[in-house]
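Review box. Two proteins, two foldings.
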Amino acid sequence: MTFAAQGPNEKTKGVAVSFASAGLFSSVRKSLRPILGLLVATTVAIAGSTAAAQAQSKKAAIVIDASTGKTLYSSSADSPRYPASLTKMMTLYLTFEAMSAGRISKDTRVVFSKYASSRPPTKLGVRPGGSITVEQAILGLVTKSANDAATALGELLGGSESNFAKMMTAKARKLGMSSTTFRNASGLPDPGQKTTARDMAILGMSLREHYPKYYSYFSTRSFAFGKSRMPNHNKLLGRVQGVDGIKTGYTRASGFNLVSSVKVGDRKIVAVVMGGASGRSRDAEMERLIAAYMPKASSRGSNPLIAARTIEPQAPIVASVASPLHAKNVPAPEARPEQVIETAYARPLARPADPIADAVAKAEAPTPKVEVDQVKTASVTPSAAPKSGWVIQVGSVGSEAEARALLDKTSDKAAQLLASAEPFTERFEKGGTTYIRARFGGFSNQATATKTCAALKKRSISCYAVQQ
C-alpha cells in the first residue's frame, strides 16, 4: 500500500500544498526581486532627498560690513529660523545693560531657583539655592553655553524667565530686530522662539558697539569652574584671524548656528551662519564667508554708520537685587551712552501674526529717542532736590525730558504708593557726560524708603533707596 494508491490524507495534503506554495513563493520572489530592489532604492532616494531638503531649509547666512551696515552677502537672511543658544546673546545684552547702568555688578550673586537648576544640559550644575557671581554666569554662557546659568540670570533681571523673555523681545524691537520673538533666556527648544540671520547680525553688532567694555568676554577661550575647565564652543577663536566672538548654538530643529564678529585692521564684519549640518561644516562655511567678504568690507567707514548714538531710558529690572542702601555715592552708568541700531538697511520679513509678541511690542514700545547732540545743547534747569533725607531712585537717563517722563510713568503705575512723595530730577556728570537722575523724595527714614521701594519692585518698577 502506498500513499499514491490511497490518495493524500490531510497530513500529506498539507505537505504537498506546503511544497507547492514554497515553490510558488520562490518563483514569485525571483520575479519580483528587480521590482523590490527598485522600490527600496526609490524609498532610500526619497528619504535622502527629504533629509537633504530639510537640512537645506534650515540654512541661512548673512555678512554685514560692521562699519557701514552694507549687506555683503545674504542667503535666506530674512527667513524664520530657530536661534538655539544664539538666544543667550540677548540674555547677555540685557546683563551688560544692567551692569552698565550700575544696577548689578560682576560680583552680584545670581541665585539658582529649583527651576533654573533643573534646566537640561549643557549646564554648570549649580544646585537649587546655590549661587554664583554675575561674572561667573557670563563666562558660563560664553564658553559652555550653560542653560541653567542663562535661566538664573533671566530670573535675576526679570523676576521670572517668562517676564524676562518679554523684556528680551521688547529690547529686540528697540534694536530693530523686527522678526525675532524670545520665549526663554537660554534658547532651549520652543516653537514660538524665532529669529532670522539678519536679526542675529544686528544683535551681534549691538553687543560690540554698545558694550565694548564687556564685549571682551566673548573672546574667553576657557573658563575654570570648580574642578572643571570649560573650553569655548567657538572653535574659530584663535584659529581664524580677527575672530573675537560671538556665539554658537545648536538644537535638532535649528541645526548648527554661529555668529562671528571679525576685525582685521580697519575692516570689520559680522557674519551669521544658521542651520549647518554639523559643527565642522558650519565652521567651514563661516571661514569661507570671512575669507571671501572681509576684503570687500570698507576700510574707511565713509557710509552712514549702522549704530547711531541715542540715549534711552533705563530698562526695568523687576528682580530684587542687592542695592547700596547705605551708600551716598551710588554707582552711576558708565560714560558711554547706550546706542540703538538704526535699521534702514534691514528688510523685515513679513511674518505671520504673533499676538503675544505684538502685545509685548505695543506695551513696551520704545520711548522717543533723544540724539546726543540734543542732549549736549539742552539747557533745562532741573527742579530743586531735597537737601537731606531718604529718596528712591527709579532711573538715571540722558535728558531732563526723559527723566520727567520716567517720573510720570512711575507715578501713574504706583499713584497710591507715591502719593506723598516728591518727584524731582538731579543732574550729575561722569566722565564728561551729563546724566539726569529720576528720584522721589520726602521719605523720613530708611525703613520707609526701603519698604516703598520693595513695593514698587513688586509692580515691576526698578528702584533703590538712598540717603540724599
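Next protein.
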Amino acid sequence: MKDSDHTTQLRAERGDVTREKLLNSAIDVFGRYGFDGATTRKLADAAGVNLQAIPYYFGGKEGLFIAAAEHLASIIGSHVGDLRGAILTRFAELDAQGAQMTAAEARQYLTQIVQRMVVLFVSEESESWARFIIREQMEPTEAFRRIYGNIMRPMIEMARRLIGAILKDDPASEHIRLRTLSFVGSVLVFRTAHAAVYAQLEWETAGPRELEILQRHAAELVAVLGAEKDRQS
C-alpha cells in the first residue's frame, strides 16, 4: 500500500471513530437536555471531540439530532435483527404456501423476542435510549418519525402478526392493534418505569438471578395471551 493510501485510510478510520463518538454521546445529551438545551458545546464535550466536528460530519446540530435518532434505531435493531429476520422469513414462507402460522409457533417466536427485549430494557445501555425516545413521545419531531419508521413500527407490526396468530384474529383489526399495544407496554415498563420496577422488586441490580426471573416472567406474559378464549371454548 502506498503511503498516501495508508494515510487516507487512517484519516477515514479516525473519521469513523469521531462520527461514532458523536452519535453515541448525542443520544444521551439530547435525551437529557432536549434539542434546545443540548448545545453544540455540550455535544462536542460529551463526545470528547472538536466543536467543528459537528458541522463537518453532520452539517450542524439538527443534522446530528436526526442522525442520532437513526443511529438509535439501528442499535436497537441490531439486538433483535437476527430474530426479526428469521420470523419475517418464516412469514414469507407461509404466505407463499397460503398457510397460517400456528398459535404454538407464534408463541415460541413472541417469547424469544420478549425475553430478549426485557433483558435489554433493564440494562444500563438502554437508559440513554429511553430518555431520548420518551422525550420524542411527548413532543414528536422528525427524530421520532425516524425511530418509529425504522424500528418501532416494524417491530410492532411483527408483534401484531404474531399476536393475531395466537388469538386467531386479523392482525390489522383494531382489537389486535390494541392488544399488541397493551402487550408492548407490559414489556416497556421495565425501562420506562425502571426505578419503580426495581423499588417494587427490591432489587439493587439485575444479575443472572434477576435476569432469569425476568425471562420467566416474559414467557408467562406470552403464555397468558388468549387464555380467556381457551377457557371459554
